[in-house]
Specification:
Shape: globular
CATH architecture of the largest domain: 2-Layer Sandwich
CATH superfamily of the largest domain: ATPase, nucleotide binding domain
Strand order of the largest sheet: 5-4-3-6-10
Number of strands: 15
Amino acid sequence: MPTAIRIVDELIDDGLVRLTGETAGKTGRPRQLLRYNQDGGIVIGIDLGGTSLYGALANIGGEILGELYASQQGLSAEENYSLVVQMIQSLVEKSIQQKQTLLGIAIGVPGVTQAGSGMVEWAPSLNWRRFFLKDRIAECFQLPVVVDNDVNLAALGELWFGVGRGVRNLVLLSIGTGVGAGIVIDGMLYRGHNSASGEVGYFIPGIEALGQRYEQFGAMEEIISDIGLVRRARTRLSNIQPEMALGSLTADDIISAARRDEPWANQLIGETADYLGMVIANIATLLDPDLIILGGGISGSADLLIPQIISRIEGVIQHIPRLEASSLGARATVMGAISTVLHLTKDYYVVRRL
């Protein structure tokens, strides 16, 4: 029996795929149609944001079965790890109630990760440097584990479940606490020589950045991240609305003010569009993607930013790609995590039969 048929038979026996019927070809026997069995297994996905932790339990069709949230600001490296373990343990307990096979765990980390080993090279917001996250989680839970950059996983989430479905070349530009990009070329994630592709927060915004040292956050990141936007707003408001400048101002507050057409907020959004225009023009010129997706916290203001970005780069570059807001929002990384565990499961069956 051919290897491919044996693999499919094992997937059917284990309940991961099911037959859905037959289709007649021009010649030969009718072909059997297969699809993933949504109830054939469940996956845990974890998104380690810059300031918060989001975990979800989902079936292999992408349906969310349970969610958990936690704050992680100001924690040490080991405290952050303990919080991840606690959330996974809670989701494992939820999975038992579902009475389905737990296939694996995937974790998105805001930093440079080695996809093969699952080691976190550097994640400044978590205080992790050369942190062997995959090995520790796998030893703790005795399950297959995937660790990858959070934006890489978000790009895969959009590719498989979101606005990127059917697109072969795309870039997900995520802007929140940090700034990064997930790059998909010919349907495959591009990682780069050091697994550090997409660190667009380190783009140079102008010649004044040359010769400077940016260790924790990059030069562009310090300007267009949520933290950078709030910092610029406080400086702007210190003379005109000092009580707001000193208060608990957030990026969402600034976006809301722009929607109310407040001049100071409009000016800040315009400045952000200037810098995003430079980032997107450089990405488009270098990679020529079909689609650039705005993700992270900024996706909520994409309707304000995209027209301004396009107006700034028209005529500057030859081809402007389609620009869209993330359709998955805060769930993008977790949905990408689900897709990676599915691929891990598929590869396991292939390797076992070769």
